[in-house]
Automatic annotation (TrEMBL), chains A, B:
Its EC number is 3.6.3.29. PROSITE patterns: ABC_TRANSPORTER_1 (PS00211), ABC_TRANSPORTER_2 (PS50893), MOP (PS51866). InterPro entries: AAA+_ATPase, ABC_transporter-like_ATP-bd, ABC_transporter-like_CS, Mo/tungstate-bd_C_term_dom, ModC_ABC_ATP-bd, Molybdenum_import_ModC, Mop_domain, P-loop_NTPase. Keywords: ATP-binding, Cell inner membrane, Cell membrane, Hydrolase, Membrane, Molybdenum, Nucleotide-binding, Translocase, Transport. This is Molybdenum ABC transporter ATP-binding protein.
UniProtKB/TrEMBL annotation, chains D, E:
It holds the Pfam family BPD_transp_1. This is Molybdenum transport system permease. Part of the binding-protein-dependent transport system for molybdenum; probably responsible for the translocation of the substrate across the membrane. The chain crosses the membrane at residues 20-39, 51-73, 85-109, 136-159, 198-217. Keywords: Cell inner membrane, Cell membrane, Membrane, Molybdenum, Transmembrane, Transmembrane helix, Transport. Belongs to the binding-protein-dependent transport system permease family. CysTW subfamily. It comes from Fulvimarina endophytica. It is found in: Cell inner membrane; Cell membrane.
Amino acid sequence: MLEVALSHTFAGFALDAEFTAPGGITVLFGRSGSGKSTIVNALAGLLTPQAGRIRLDDRVLLDTARGIDLPPHRRRLGAIFQDSRLFPHLTVSQNLAYGAFFAPKDAARESRDKVVEMLGIGHLLKRRPSALSGGEKQRVAIGRALLAAPRLILADEPLASLDEERKAEILPYFERLRDEVSVPILYVSHSASEVARLATTIVVVKDGRIVRKGRAEEVLSDPAVLPAGVREAGAILGARVLRHAEDGLTEVDAGGTVLFIERIDRPVGAPLRMRIHASDVILTREAPSGLSSLNMLHGTIEEVRAGEGADAMVALSTGGGRLLARLTRRSVASLDLAPGVAVYAIVKSVSVAPGDIAPGATEEP
Amino acid sequence: MLEVALSHTFAGFALDAEFTAPGGITVLFGRSGSGKSTIVNALAGLLTPQAGRIRLDDRVLLDTARGIDLPPHRRRLGAIFQDSRLFPHLTVSQNLAYGAFFAPKDAARESRDKVVEMLGIGHLLKRRPSALSGGEKQRVAIGRALLAAPRLILADEPLASLDEERKAEILPYFERLRDEVSVPILYVSHSASEVARLATTIVVVKDGRIVRKGRAEEVLSDPAVLPAGVREAGAILGARVLRHAEDGLTEVDAGGTVLFIERIDRPVGAPLRMRIHASDVILTREAPSGLSSLNMLHGTIEEVRAGEGADAMVALSTGGGRLLARLTRRSVASLDLAPGVAVYAIVKSVSVAPGDIAPGATEEP
Amino acid sequence: AEEITVFAAASLTNAMADIEARYEATTGDAVTVSLAGSSALARQIIEGAPADIFISANSEWMDEVERVGLVEEGTRVDLLRNELVLIAHGLRAPAVEIGPDMDLAALLGDGKLAMALTNAVPAGIYGKEALESLGQWSAVEDKVVQSDNVRTALRLVAAGEAPYGIVYASDARAEPDVTVVGTFPEDSHQPIIYPAAGLKGEDRPAVDRFLEFLKGPEAKAAFERQGFQTLAE
Amino acid sequence: MTDWLGPEEWQAVALSLKVSFWATLASLPAGILTAFALARWRFPGRELLNGLVHLPLVLPPVVTGYLLLLTFGRNGALGAPLAELGIVFAFRWTGAALAAAIMGFPLMVRAIRLSIEAIDVKLEQAGATLGASRPFVFLTLTLPLMLPGILAGTILAFAKAMGEFGATITFVSNIPGETRTIPTAIYAFLQVPGGESAAMKLVLVSVAISMLAVLLSEAIGRRIASRIEGV
Amino acid sequence: MTDWLGPEEWQAVALSLKVSFWATLASLPAGILTAFALARWRFPGRELLNGLVHLPLVLPPVVTGYLLLLTFGRNGALGAPLAELGIVFAFRWTGAALAAAIMGFPLMVRAIRLSIEAIDVKLEQAGATLGASRPFVFLTLTLPLMLPGILAGTILAFAKAMGEFGATITFVSNIPGETRTIPTAIYAFLQVPGGESAAMKLVLVSVAISMLAVLLSEAIGRRIASRIEGV
Ligand SMILES: Nc1ncnc2c1ncn2[C@@H]1O[C@H](COP(=O)(O)OP(=O)(O)OP(=O)(O)O)[C@@H](O)[C@H]1O
Ligand SMILES: Nc1ncnc2c1ncn2[C@@H]1O[C@H](COP(=O)(O)OP(=O)(O)OP(=O)(O)O)[C@@H](O)[C@H]1O
Ligand code: MOO
Ligand SMILES: [Mg+2]
Ligand SMILES: [Mg+2]
């Protein structure tokens, strides 16, 4: 549990932020120049705010009122910066070793080989940072922070310079950190899809202030806050591979319903987690026919939450788990949707992107 | 017209690329470390490749065989780098003036005020780069390149560090440059949505080689090439604002069909361009009812193109213009879709994101 | 055999090398000679330098050492004497009659007269004194260029930068590119004396031995070979 | 206050200032050029030039002065032809400035070179892509970014010029009002018994001047740094 | 070859090497510390320290030598107590090394300081967030990144030590085998008729040694630069 209260002023910019990060991945979301990096710097101990308190679990990292200000190296927050900040005189391998060297010997840590493989930097180990591409640098920086066995990971737009595929490879690792290793992560991002994908908690920063904070599902269903991100809200369905058809589709079983997704490279019987974006879901009261869409799930509406704008978020329970659908309020009205109503959810198979399929069992039943 | 043929070897990496950029925006798309920045550096004249030719219109910029190698400043390619490379000793305003100072006096150029406003950097003009956030830096770098009145703009992931909203604000400017100013742009990106949005031509780089190049529509309909980008292929519909309903929706007229989109701030009667993502479109042969989706267009199939995987791209003509729909081949088969067949296209209103609504008339009728 | 250290004015470099070798050969003592400007040596002695014998290029610095009480009583002797000469650049410069009647200024024309520092370095001080007593100083004052030591002044004349210079006879002797065109009368300046003395310290026979040797015939010959006149009996 | 030092001493102070100022100023362009060449260019004779630049440090000052005399004296290899053109160093304050400049040159070049080597070439490349030709890139980017080194080099060269003695007196002797700088005046005082206190007064003046120069350069340095590193 | 110079001259060459080596090596830690303090710390007396560091440049070497004599001589303020501890500089080669170290100190400090100021503090911050305490950050990041300046400072100090004359001869005299370095030997030769050619031989030896040192430092510098800037 990270508790943060900071205020600091630059000429022309005032930060006044207070939030808690309960664990998992807390995403600091906000526009360019809103103050995200300033918060990260203050957390890392690189900027002493004019006033503030920072507490991580039972350790006070900063309390300007009480004159406490732990130096960066005693905070043990693994920082991944917007600019990679690799050490130019060290090889990639030495850069990776740097953090690990200072990590307490008994700290739980990832194995170097695993991190190297996951980040795809095995062939770069002997190079120096100047011989790396932008994305390669950032991957090394991520590895360096992970290997320092930090108590909390501070990631300032770590994936901004990575391609979608690489992102898709690394995102699950952050998910794993969130779900398995239980290192809390403060993740700065301006990418709505990363937010939707990763966030346990979302803190929205605007002009140096926190304008919204809360559990991801709540914040994501508020279009006023995340104008560009609303399309990305979604739910996770648990499924199991049924078979690989020869026309390039894979059939999966989501709690009794057969769904079709683009072929994935998982053995038959393997469990899957699929994120289905709320805005990719169309609801209908009668089973439709003659539609190009192949995936249909039967479910019951659990909750209808109208946003502040034209939108509403409908949660329904299906055999595969809880599903979110984003509709217009007008549609909610015209279809007369309300808790308890049985509906069909139509999901286009192709909208289940490979990046949204994570191997492993769902937590949700 | 930019013609490029390059080969260059680093220890452990070989570049061998040949492509032409016919005008408009040519997107170099490829994974981290695939060689995109290396190509950009060679074009800018910052790296002399072991062998190569570069021609821009009738000017030979490089021809290693003939010993021609124009220095960077005589190439006049406005480069926007992955790392902003702002001049630390100059203020933002001086950084902007830098390129403009060297631009030929008679060159067509954007007005400084316009660029400043478009990039939202008016309040930063007196600062030095060290007092800017990551995204702010990058915006200034974009402005600096634009104001140099270049013959071609080289943009190496210019938007990677920007938030979606800011991207949404700047992307149209690149579109305008493409459509109006006729400065050709070579745009490096790993973001499929930027690719889909901007590209006239797409050049796909992989491990230092060009694995695919062609007109954007062609390349985008090939899922094998753009695995993460396929969801982003789309078409542009011309429309006109009909009315703003009080439930937060705006009704528009797309060639006779009424569509509902999230409220936009345009006057009634204003023309619009809306991008509709191919994967957000569901086709049906009979007019459906009882669906949560509000938008339906009637049209006739013009072309069905099966991709290499499980997908197919269906193009249909509607009253509002040509529309693309991405389906599975299985759906194409089961619905028996073929050119000439009349279908209904269902589009979820909310999937028309604000960033995809550009004011101005469509070129397509 | 003992070890002794001699601090000697740098202008004695060649002579001291000669004497050192002969003395060591005859006595078996080991002599270390440190050569520097008299002022530096005197100050070092005053600050406790491990010197047993001091040979100064002028009396003032020996006086200074004596005043501080570092000279062993009864050991100070005036060892050598030098002459002040006027030199000219080149091998065939005509001789100059040095006296109150000479017109040094005319001789110089728009050339320079090279000397050592006229208010600091002995050769310069004596030279200025001589010119003053011969009534020449005010006429040539503006043409004088002063070096940090005599050798530099000599070098200026040798290089032809200055047509004339005032140096010690001992310096002028061996320089091939200059001609001695005249010697300043002995009474035109204070006598140019090189005093030597033993310095306070443990009573050591070798110190006395060396002081005696300096006055002896072998040393005299060595000094004279370098153009010095010997004084001590 | 003017009584505290005699007129001849004040003359030496004024002359030292003049000599040091011009020595520093005049060697700056050559210093920048040499530093740039050593830092950036690969050319035959580069190592030789580099060694040459260090020579005034390596050689005893007297030797440097002597070599200057042989080169720039009236009959010197360069001195004679230059004299035809009316440029005379021998026994002039300009010669003192030349000696001081040469003695300070290695210090100036090294400082500037270090600064050049610390510049991120990518910034200059960015300038080139914006249309700036090499000379312009140099003037607008390289030069401002190497200011810390130029400043450091300047102050080192100035301080060295204030203290230079051996090469100066050997090359241009000691002519009151022309080449009699503070160090030669101090040297003269120290040659005679009892001259220490007069020498110390000049030492104090020299130290005061140099301290002021150092303070000034620090203040300028802070401004430059804050410009480059941010407000 | 050994005939070319007499044994006394070879002795002077060996001594100069020893003195320069130790002068440079021993002043390095102090040089690094001083440069670091001046570059990074704000403390009362900072400007004073900065001025003090420049003093050996500003003062004529004779004055520096004299001050050293007064301070570190047998009867000197520091010399006497140090002698009690068995540390003697007066008229020892260690004193020659001390004089050389002090004369080269301003050059060394400036070069190192410039390098420190060119380091991107953000890298050190990154090191701290990875758990490295200040001393570790210094050792693993700051120090390696300031190597170009350390190298430049070292070579300057070494060259200066090879050429130092005025302060040395004034402080520790010119005692063969103990304090008679190449420059003082050259001086002695130049004091007597016909000594020029012998002096020139020593000048050549000195130049050769320094050229080698400069070449070596360039080679090391290139390695360092290629490490930092990339293969
Ligand atoms: N040293 C400084 N002096 C003055 N203003 C500063 C300074 N550093 C940052 N700022 C300003 O503070 C604000 C917040 O900056 P910050 O770097 O925290 O933004 P950010 O949210 O991380 O943006 P981005 O997404 O572009 O990285 C910006 O408006 C920036 O201009
Ligand atoms: N100086 C160099 N020496 C050796 N290899 C290099 C050097 N510069 C780049 N490379 C390698 O060349 C390849 C291409 O690099 P480049 O910077 O062009 O990639 P990129 O496509 O721009 O990647 P990114 O999206 O991460 O910026 C990479 O594998 C990189 O490691
Ligand atoms: O012998 Mo001296 O003391 O150099 O004039
Ligand atoms: Mg930021
Ligand atoms: Mg790149």
